[in-house]
Specification:
The chain is mostly beta strands. The protein has two domains: about 5-70, no CATH class; about 75-100 and about 110-270, no CATH class. It contains three helices and 13 strands, in the order βββββαβββββααβββ. The strands form three sheets. It has a five-stranded mixed β-sheet with strand order 1-5-2-3-4, with no helix packed on it. Strands 9-6-13-12 form a four-stranded antiparallel β-sheet, with no helix packed on it. A four-stranded antiparallel β-sheet has the order 8-7-10-11. Helix 1 (about 75-90) runs parallel beside helix 2 (about 195-205). The protein is elongated, with a radius of gyration of 21 Å. This is DUF3103 family protein. It holds the Pfam family DUF3103. It comes from Streptomyces musisoli.
């Protein structure tokens, strides 16, 4: 269902519904058990007590009574899925490394854009789904003049309304022909099929040709995704257009749902 190899192993897990419930796990309390709803926009979910009786639980607010949630191990699936995504994109020729010597002037290393801080207002993940599994797709034109996409795992970005300071490399400019790139931030959900995601991205990006000037690719990425991917598959979180190698400071996202501060960073060779 997720387009992952059998070597990934079991993805089934049972977890506490929210960290705030831990203090309520006393010896005289028997937690309820719920299955994570497939629709993250659900208003309620059903939890069952030890006698098998169903209870309606508000899906928009963390309940006072502790409960366990049965769902997919999102962190494990996310890690394996991004590996599949990168392999599929490389096999389809939209994320191959730049040829050696492409930037002769930077023989001692390469320029990058580093994220020093980032926050999103809504990570598109309700409480019963647990922490978000966030990744970004960096798009631009490669040294060969073809549209390319690189996936960047942002596994630390667990919750909305929280500022994170990752000091993470977002763009490796040696892979790109022009001094501009776009970023689309997504949140991984249970139904994500990574092979399908890679194929959709490939189909969309290979139709975009280099016209000798930079063309934003955010719209091409978003239009490639079925409508369901904006509900409970890899959710669209935010996007940034025309990120340049010399971009610095705070950059607000186009959707108004997040921001990040960036700075140029030179990665020296050893």
């Amino acid at each position: 269902m997720k387009g992952l190899p059998a070597s990934t192993g079991s993805l089934l897990r049972v977890r506490l519904g929210a960290a705030s419930m831990r203090a309520r796990l006393t010896p005289d309390v028997t937690p309820w058990v719920a299955v994570a709803a497939s629709d993250e926009h659900a208003k309620t979910i059903t939890a069952f007590d030890s006698r098998g009786r169903g209870h309606t639980v508000d899906a928009t607010h963390v309940p006072a009574f502790p409960l366990y949630v049965l769902d997919i191990d999102a962190a494990k699936a996310h890690k394996a899925g991004l590996r599949v995504l990168r392999e599929q994109l490389a096999d389809n020729g939209v994320s191959t490394p730049a040829p050696q010597g492409a930037h002769a002037a930077d023989t001692a290393g390469w320029w990058a854009t580093k994220v020093t801080a980032v926050e999103v207002n809504d990570d598109q993940e309700p409480w019963f789904k647990g922490a978000a599994e966030t990744f970004s797709l960096v798009t631009g034109f490669g040294q060969d003049g073809k549209a390319r996409v690189d996936s960047v795992d942002m596994i630390y970005l667990d919750y909305d309304g929280t500022v994170y300071y990752p000091n993470q490399i977002l763009v490796n400019w040696s892979n790109y022909k022009y001094n501009l790139a776009d970023v689309v931030m997504m949140e991984d959900d249970d139904g994500t099929n990574y092979k399908s995601l890679a194929q959709a991205l490939t189909t969309a990006l290979l139709t975009v040709t280099d016209q000798g000037t930079y063309i934003p690719l955010v719209n091409a990425v978003l239009s490639a995704m079925p409508d369901s991917w904006f509900t409970d598959d890899p959710d669209y979180v935010e996007s940034w257009y025309t990120l340049a190698r010399n971009s610095t400071g705070r950059l607000n996202g186009a959707a108004g749902n997040g921001w990040m501060t960036v700075e140029p960073y030179f990665v020296e060779q050893l």
